[in-house]
Write a structure and sequence with these properties.
Layout: E1 5-9, H1 10-24, E2 30-34, H2 42-50, E3 55-58, H3 61-69, E4 76-78, H4 87-93, E5 96-99, H5 102-115, E6 119-125, H6 136-147, E7 152-159, H7 171-188, E8 194-196, H8 203-206, E9 217-220, H9 222-226, E10 244-254, H10 267-271, E11 282-286, E12 298-299, E13 304-309, E14 314-318, E15 328-333, H11 335-343, E16 348-352
Parallel strand pairs: 1-16, 2-3, 2-9, 3-4, 4-5, 5-6, 6-7, 7-8
Antiparallel strand pairs: 1-10, 10-11, 10-15, 11-14, 12-15, 13-14
Length: about 375
C-alpha cells in the first residue's frame, strides 16, 4: 500500500451518524451530513446517508459536483453563500443554498429560470459568530425580496456558531433564532420548513434537557467524522474517534548530535536550528510534511514527540528503538489536519468497513422536508 494514505472506516462513520440521528430524532431534529472536510467523497457521504442523515451539505460547488458525478441524486445544499460567478452551477447541482446577499439571490433566481427549476433559499442569520449572516433587523427585508422573485423559494433560516468566534451558542440565542422564524412567517406568510440551528458545536444544546423549539435541523460534519464536540475537543459518548487514520512512511532513523557541529553562517538559520527534545534518544523522519496536513493537528504515537516539520518532512523523537526505513507510523487527526490531508494531492484514500455497492434508496427520495436540507 502506498504512503502517505488515509484509512477510512466507513462502518464507523455510518455508526456515528446512526448514534447522532438516534439521539436527535426524538427531539425533532434531523441530521444533515456535511462533507466539506472530506472534499465531497462519495463513499463517505453514502455512509452518512446510510446512517440516517436526511441529506448532504457542502461549502464548495466542486465537491457537490463530485457527489453528483458519482451518481448521488438526493438532496444536497450549498452551505456557503454562493459565489455570484457560480450561480448557474449552484442551481444545476443543489436543491437549496444558504444566502445572505440580495444580489446573489437575484442571480440564483435568474439561473433557476434558465434551468427550468426552482431553487430553495435558506437565509443565514447573524447570531453572534460574526462570520456570514444577515443582521436580524434586516432579515424581514431580504425575506420579502425572496418571496417576490420567481425562480427561488424561501425555505427556511439558519445560523452559524463557533465557526469564527469559537463561542458555543446559548439557549437565549437559540430561542431568539426560533422567534425570528415565527416573525418571518408572520410577515411573509408561508411556513418555514427548515430552521437550521447550526453545526456540531450545537450538540450540547440540542441534546440538553430544555426544549429545542423550532429548530429541526443540524448540519453535522466534525461530530460524525471524528466523534468529538468541536469546541472542547471531547469525545461524544458512544462515538468512534478513529474513523480516519493517517499513515506515513519512515525514510530515515537515528540520533542527531545537538548542538549541530557544523557552523551555520546564516544567523536566521542558526536561530531556526532544531534541537532534539530532552529525553528523546533517537529520531525518525517521515515522508510527510506541511504540504500534506496540519502537523500540529496530529496525535503523536505513544512514546514519541514532535520535533518539527518542513514542507515534506516530519521529524519525530522517540524514547524507544525507532522503526526501520520503510516502516509505517499511524496518526489520529483533528478536524484541521483531516481537512488538509483529504485535500492533499499526494495522499491516497483507502476505504475500509462496509463500502456500499450502490446509492441507497435514501439518496433517491425527495420527501417534502428532506429535499431541502
Amino acid at each position: 500500500m502506498s504512503c502517505p494514505r488515509i484509512e477510512v472506516d466507513l462502518g464507523k462513520i455510518r455508526r456515528n451518524t446512526q448514534t447522532l440521528v438516534g439521539r436527535l430524532s426524538p427531539r425533532g431534529i434531523g441530521v444533515t451530513g456535511v462533507t466539506k472536510a472530506v472534499c465531497g467523497h462519495p463513499a463517505i457521504a453514502q455512509a452518512m446517508l446510510d446512517g440516517g442523515a436526511v441529506g448532504l451539505a457542502d461549502a464548495r460547488i466542486s465537491n457537490v459536483q463530485r457527489l453528483r458525478a458519482a451518481g448521488m441524486t438526493g438532496p444536497i445544499t450549498l452551505i456557503r453563500t454562493p459565489m455570484l460567478s457560480q450561480a448557474d452551477h449552484v442551481v444545476q447541482s443543489c436543491e437549496a443554498s444558504y444566502n445572505t446577499e440580495k444580489l446573489v439571490i437575484t442571480a440564483l433566481a435568474a439561473a433557476a429560470i434558465r434551468n427550468g427549476s426552482d431553487h430553495g433559499i435558506i437565509l443565514m442569520v447573524e447570531m453572534g459568530d460574526q462570520r456570514d449572516g444577515i443582521l436580524p433587523e434586516n432579515l424581514e427585508d431580504i425575506a420579502l425580496h425572496v418571496m417576490q422573485m420567481p425562480g427561488v423559494a424561501l425555505k427556511g433560516i439558519g445560523a452559524n456558531f463557533a465557526c469564527l468566534s469559537g463561542l458555543s451558542p446559548t439557549a437565549l440565542q437559540m430561542a431568539a433564532l426560533c422567534d425570528l422564524a415565527n416573525e418571518i412567517e408572520g410577515v411573509c406568510g408561508p411556513f418555514l420548513k427548515i430552521v437550521s440551528g447550526g453545526n456540531s458545536t450545537n450538540l450540547p444544546w440540542a441534546l440538553g434537557e430544555h426544549a429545542t423549539g423550532r429548530v429541526n435541523d443540524l448540519r453535522l460534519g466534525e461530530a460524525i467524522l471524528l466523534g468529538v464536540e468541536p469546541v472542547s475537543g471531547d469525545q461524544i459518548g458512544g462515538m468512534h474517534t478513529d474513523a480516519f487514520t493517517l499513515v506515513a512512511e519512515v525514510i530515515e532513523t537515528g540520533a542527531k548530535p545537538s548542538p549541530f557541529p557544523i557552523a551555520l553562517i546564516d544567523p536566521p538559520r542558526e536561530r531556526l536550528r532544531i534541537v532534539t527534545p530532552s529525553g528523546a534518544s533517537a529520531r525518525m523522519i517521515l515522508a510527510m510534511g506541511h504540504q500534506d496536513t496540519d502537523i500540529l493537528g496530529l496525535s503523536m504515537p505513544a512514546g514519541s514527540t514532535l520535533i518539527g516539520a518542513t514542507s515534506d518532512h516530519l521529524v519525530i523523537g522517540t524514547l524507544g528503538i525507532p522503526p526501520t526505513p520503510g516502516s509505517e507510523v499511524r496518526f489520529q487527526m483533528n478536524y484541521n489536519a483531516l481537512m488538509h490531508a483529504m485535500a492533499a494531492p499526494d495522499i491516497e484514500v483507502e476505504l475500509m468497513g462496509y463500502p456500499p455497492t450502490r446509492p441507497s434508496r435514501r439518496t433517491q427520495s425527495k420527501v417534502d422536508h428532506l429535499a431541502l436540507v
